[in-house]
Amino acid sequence: MHSWTLDDMPDLGGTTAVVTGANSGIGAVTALVLARSGARTLLACRDPERGRRAVDAVRRAAPASDVRLVRLDLADLSSVAEAAEAIAKETDGRLDLLVNNAGVMALPPLRTADGFEMQFGTNHLGHFALTLRLLPVLGVQGPARVVTLSSLGHRIGRIDLDDLNAERSYGKWRAYGQSKLANLLFTDELDRRARTAGRDLVALAAHPGLSATELGQAGPRLAGRNWAAKLERASRLYTQPASAGALPVLYAATLQDAPGGSYYGPSRLGETRGAPAPARKSHRAQDPLMARALWDESARLTGLDADAV
Hints:
Elements: E1 16-20, H1 25-36, E2 40-45, H2 48-61, E3 67-71, H3 77-90, E4 97-100, H4 118-133, E5 144-149, H5 172-197, E6 201-206, E7 211-212, H6 214-218, H7 226-238, E8 240-241, H8 242-245, H9 247-254, E9 263-268, E10 273-278, H10 288-302
Parallel strand pairs: 1-2, 1-4, 2-3, 4-5, 5-6, 6-9, 7-8
Antiparallel strand pairs: 9-10
Helix pairs in contact: 1-2, 3-4, 4-5, 5-10
């Protein structure tokens, strides 16, 4: 059976894509491959200087590419609103692909500019708000896709609707797992709502397995719990480069006729590495009632219209 590789990337000429967190790791690889395949590619980055260096790197690797920078801080809803407005202008009102890639992992207790727990606020609420604000340009002039990155860590996640922002208690890995579970529930509910509304939009998710990225390097060492210790040992044994970790993302972004709500990840060694293939969701990630409840609460927290889709 043929394993999907970058050689299978289609020609993306005439399309426009946005990649969040595109200045390093999975996002940088994703943006480069999309640009090299012909897509006008917007790199949405928090740090303008690092973003400019990333844009320059893409231009050096793909001189004929059309690549641009947009400032986006997902931990600040005012920045999300400004970025969405800038993206609408840069895309001339047409966006074909949104890759919700940026994320933070296993942080100490921190708050976003709007007072949300940092991991939930960045990984989920920031992307939730960005996606809803980009709906006027997504899928209005042809089919569009939204690909959101989750993680193997979603399997330890639980959604606590009464304490989403960890005001009663905080555990850095518990908060990370909740945010990555939220990414999958968001994907399913976005896809369901788009189908119900008759929009030419599909939502999919992907995860990079265990990849050697800045996200993993910046996080604290995993210790203190059996699952964490096992994951640390697995990371040392099975970590793959970001170029391989980006394959499931690119697969989800370009696979022809990919069903909405699909979830892709590496195919080998417990989904830690290898060619992209359908990935396993936890039972909690397949709960439609929780997906709808989380959507409504996310809209309330961000001040957006839950029925925008």
